[in-house]
Amino acid sequence: LYAGAEQVEEKARYRNLEKTDAQAARVVERLESFRLPGVTISGEDVIDALETLRSKVAGDKRAGVINYVIRGSVDGQKVTIKADNISYAKAVDAICTQTGRTWTIEFMDRLGVPSLVIKEGKGQQPGTGQPATRPVVEPEGGEKLQPEAEGRDR
Fold it and tell me: How many other β-carbons are positioned within 10 Å of the β-carbon of residue 68?
């Protein structure tokens, strides 16, 4: 099933979210509801950044465990996010923007447990339709994002 109107709205909020069905769209809404105060990720590896986000949500009993899968190598890819108040979903989208990746929700086992899947390729710079080549973080609603200088050292 393709959730037409829901998908259009989601795509407007997230530049790197792949098509989702109605069940996955509900998971994205849940990830949107997890607000992360005081996120500072400065030149961290992708996996470390995802762990930082997961640790920020750990205190929210509604969250349970957020499983994620990364397809393809993220070796050497660094990300930077500084935000006073950002949703978990928007933070994941920012990571994908900075690394030229996409993300989606997949149900990977017979129990129907959702996983956040980050895939290679086709992540986009805002407004260009071109692959991301540098960190870009923009505010959404009441979020106050402050991108830091991009680090090139490894």
Answer: 15
